[in-house]
UniProtKB/TrEMBL annotation:
Belongs to the peptidase S1 family. CLIP subfamily. Gene3D superfamilies: Trypsin-like serine proteases. GO terms for biological process: proteolysis. It comes from Dermatophagoides pteronyssinus (European house dust mite). The keyword Disulfide bond applies. GO terms for molecular function: serine-type endopeptidase activity. Residues 54-282 form the Peptidase S1 domain. Keywords: Disulfide bond. PANTHER family: TRYPTASE-RELATED (PTHR24256). This is Clotting factor B-like. Signal peptide: none annotated. InterPro entries: Peptidase_S1_PA (IPR009003), Peptidase_S1_PA_chymotrypsin (IPR043504), Peptidase_S1A (IPR001314), Ser/Thr_Proteases_Immune/Dev (IPR051487), Trypsin_dom (IPR001254). The keyword Disulfide bond applies. It comes from the Eukaryota.
Length: 285
């Protein structure tokens, strides 16, 4: 299986691995990008312990999101993460801006309830080498000391099928997290929260953030739904959508201004970083 994209650029890039293959061929002023499907996702990924979904509520059903994880620093919850295999999770790079020392972090998994989470020790933290505080390349990988045992309440999410996969057909997605219910909140939620958000064009997002001189780039996803939003404490958690009853990870929750204001939420587009994820996993298996 492969896809071909045509762009009017003048360069040649070649990348090949056991999992992702992409080749760019230039003919005149046209660039042809041939991409194979990735196989980073594990069999059975993105499935649910319970298949019932909530469309208008806020609290999740236990077992609905077995890939959800809560990041702790000094034993205090403060951010999100998402399981991609037995040893690795994805999160936001800015969660580790103060320190990348694994011993001060833990990961909570296995429940939507804060008090029932199973705590796991962190072995390694790898932040994208091009990360700039709260802006570009806001992505990090977390390796656990011991592999997770998958079951009804612990299971990985699926990654996008193709690198640089277009989101043109995706109009809405879902964000989950234990973050604050509002910007002035002082503690995380006791129960995992969920919210469905509309995806807005990057052009519109850039126009809005130009008021703050904030650059929005092609490897980001912007979301906006009136009176609904991701909030503090959700950063690093998943923004995903469903395909054939499987949850596909399209974004890692990044930043906003406050919560549910005029400014969209900005997420890191995971499909732009599949090659990076694969390289890090291969170098640190």
């Amino acid at each position: 299986m492969f896809r071909i994209f045509i762009l009017s650029l003048f360069s040649i890039i070649f990348f090949q691995s056991n999992i992702i293959y992409s080749k760019i061929i230039v003919i005149g002023n046209l660039k042809f990008i041939v991409q194979m499907k990735n196989n980073l996702s594990l069999p059975g990924c993105g499935l649910f312990g319970h298949f019932e979904r909530i469309s208008n509520g806020q609290d999740s059903i236990d077992g609905s999101y077995p890939f959800a994880a809560l990041l702790y620093r000094y034993q205090a919850p403060f951010g999100g993460a998402v399981i991609i295999n037995e040893r690795w999770l994805l999160s936001a790079a800015h969660n580790f801006y103060e320190s990348k020392q694994p011993s001060i972090y833990q990961i909570g998994v296995g429940s939507i309830y804060l008090k029932r989470l199973i705590m796991k020790k962190v072995d390694k933290i790898i932040v994208h080498e091009k990360y700039q505080h709260h802006q570009k390349y806001d992505l990090a990988l977390i390796r656990l000391k011991e592999p997770l045992k998958f079951g009804q309440n612990i299971r990985p999410i699926c990654l996008p099928e193709y690198s640089f996969e277009s989101l043109n057909d995706l109009k809405r997605g879902r964000a989950i997290g234990w973050g604050y219910r509002n910007f002035s909140g002082s503690k995380v939620s006791e129960i995992l929260q969920e919210v469905d958000l509309d995806i807005i064009p990057l052009k519109k997002c850039r126009q809005i953030y130009s008021k703050l001189d904030q650059d929005i780039i092609h490897s980001q996803i912007c979301t906006y739904t009136k009176n609904k939003d991701e909030c503090s404490g959700d950063s690093g958690g998943p923004f995903f959508a469903y395909k054939n009853d499987q949850a596909i990870l399209f974004g890692i929750i990044g930043f906003g201004v406050t919560c549910a204001d005029e400014f969209p939420g900005v997420n890191t587009a995971v499909s732009h970083f599949l090659n990076w994820i694969h390289r890090i996993l291969m170098e640190n298996h």
